[in-house]
Write a structure and sequence with these properties.
The protein is α/β, with parallel strands linked by helices. It has helices at residues 2-19, 36-39, 55-67, 70-73, 105-115, 141-150, 168-181, 192-196, 204-210, 224-241, 265-277, 293-299, 302-308, and strands spanning 31-34, 77-79, 119-125, 155-159, 187-190, 213-215, 250-252, 282-284, 317-322, 325-332, 336-343, 351-356, 367-372, 378-383, 387-392, 397-406. It has an 8-stranded parallel beta sheet with strand order 7-6-5-4-3-2-1-8. It starts with a helix and ends in a 15-residue tail after the last strand.
Length: 421
Amino acid sequence: MVLKFLTIFIFLFQITYIYSLENGLARTPPMGWMTWQRFRCVTDCQNFPDSCISEKLIREMADRMADDGYLEAGYNYIIVDDCWLATKRDKDNRLQPDPVRFPNGIRALADYVHSKGLKFGIYEDYGTLTCGGYPGSIDHLELDAETFAEWTVDYLKLDGCYADIHEMDEGYPLMGHYLNKTNRQIVYSCSWPAYQEGTIQPNYTKIAEYCNLWRNYDDIDDNFGSLNDIIQWFASKQDNLSLVHGPGSWNDPDMLIIGNYGLSYGQSRAQMAIWSIMSAPLIMSVDLREIKPWHSEILLNKNLIAINQDKLGIMGKRFSVVNNVEIWKKILENDKTAFVFYYPLPYGTPAVINVPLTELGLNKSEIYNIFETFTGQLVGQFKKGDLLKVRVEPSGSVFACWAESANFEQKPKSKSTLFKN
């Protein structure tokens, strides 16, 4: 009986071990660029030669990422979303790209991306079809995982269209198992909970065990209403989501839309600041060939990226609302704390609030230096009993800062940084 029990225990342990992702990847939130939000499913290269989903587009974006400072800042994945596929698999049931738009094949495209020092990501769908109507993976999970590895893919986004949401709890882990089986390190992005939310309760503990990151909620659209809706949804779920959030497993509120058409300057700063506070993946979706300098400055802000990439990997939360100004907070390594004051209401007058440092949780030290995040400029030196006066413009703007312990004897620097040179 003991031998029988031991055999069963070993068998169950092996199943758990085999199916757990445990790939050692994404120890900080992934950073990169993705086609979907900006370029959608444009496949007409005759009429839209510069914006259709094609190897030309990916190569040009790879050039911009490598040459314009994005790779140096940490944006190292370039990911082709939906609509890269041919309408049918080949004679051996393998996936194949559209032959007109990807004439040299995916492996050659991946080689080009890798030659730029970047990593290559691709999209598929757990269901029978992708959301755009191309062949899905559900009956070919192992074959597709092998194909991605042969193509030297570094990142897989697996969507959930045309699939039974009740089968995802088994199907998504199975694909993770097959990815591991290839012995190629592939970051695994799941859309698993995004399809279950609102119908059945996602098992986030299980999702975090099998995925490196996962989409939770609706796709982001290119407007402030969509952005704010996502922010409010995550704030309402933050206590549960933060329990499974950290190195190797990240909640994903969707792509950065900074640089497109729908956000103001203040709203663009807000998305970058709040995504950084939440330790969210920083995946841009913008035409890097046409981006304005002020958009680039936001996306490349070293202090915000340092907050996002902080090694503790804590998911920052909205911990207070004062006069309609949301206060978000994230604990950083080296005893520093980052804050974002976010004012989403469309009122014509800026909000001004006075917040005691103790109510911000700054009570361990007698003295704090506070720096504005976007510029690194000193806001001031404060005693722990002082008030911090904050002014925030309306309609989705932010004031962002960080606090660090100080002492009376040392005069504060007029400017500081969170990043390491």
